[in-house]
Write a structure and sequence with these properties.
The protein has nine helices and no strands. With 213 residues, the chain is an all-alpha fold. The longest helix is centred in the last third of the chain and has 46 residues. Keywords: Membrane, Transmembrane, Transmembrane helix.
């Protein structure tokens, strides 16, 4: 056995700290997972801020031609979406901030609480995202409708009359709404799984291993 093999074998041996606390490796693993979660939350929050600034600027861009009642409705939905989004970002912020404390990652009880808090935060994220689907659809309608958005809203308001006079418009609206909902749901579920869900599962796996040991 050469020197490198001896060094590797020595490094793989458990330290006194590991022997005193056999769950230490799981605590460290959860700490690494939380670091990745913090990075993802910051990344998504920055992306959200950029997206909000873009959406706020949309009516001011000549290409979209959004004005009058359509502009008022547009900003009304923007405010709703912003407030709803801040709800779960605030929850994530305080959760991640509290998880920075070392003692919270030093016992199974605290890790268990952290797991359920994270799981609840992710479910809140999912619920808020689904609740915002109607607002998102109206924003999309206003953006693609541009100066025709008000006329489209009037047609939707007078649904029965429009159904008789222009059934193709109603059919187009229904199909567009269904396709948009499917796309939003798929994107939401993908983001939840990629940004949060997999990491929450990893924390649960560490908890299960700690219990088994």
């Amino acid at each position: 056995m050469n020197f490198d093999e001896l060094k590797k074998s020595w490094q793989e041996q458990p330290t006194d700290e590991d022997l005193q606390n056999p769950n230490l490796k799981h605590y460290k693993e959860v700490g690494n997972i939380m670091a990745k979660l913090r990075r993802n939350i910051k990344l998504e929050f920055v992306s959200w801020v950029v997206c909000m600034f873009f959406l706020i600027a949309v009516p001011m861009l000549p290409i979209y031609k959004i004005s009058g009642y359509a502009a008022f409705a547009y900003y009304f939905f923007i405010v709703q979406i912003s407030l709803s989004s801040l709800l779960y970002y605030r929850r994530f912020y305080y959760l991640i901030k509290s998880a920075k404390q070392i003692d919270l990652l030093a016992s199974r009880e605290h890790l268990l609480k952290l797991y359920y808090d994270l799981k609840y935060a992710v479910e809140t994220y999912r619920i808020v995202a689904y609740v915002m689907i109607p607002q998102a659809l109206f924003l999309y309608l206003i953006m693609i409708g541009q100066n025709r958005a008000v006329a489209w809203f009037e047609k939707l308001y007078n649904f029965r009359q429009t159904l008789q006079l222009d059934p193709n418009f109603i059919l187009w609206m229904i199909l567009s709404a269904l396709i948009s909902i499917v796309i939003i749901v798929l994107i939401t579920e993908f983001m939840i799984r990629a940004y949060y869900g997999d990491y929450v599962k990893q924390i649960k796996e560490n908890l299960d291993q700690m219990e088994a040991e």
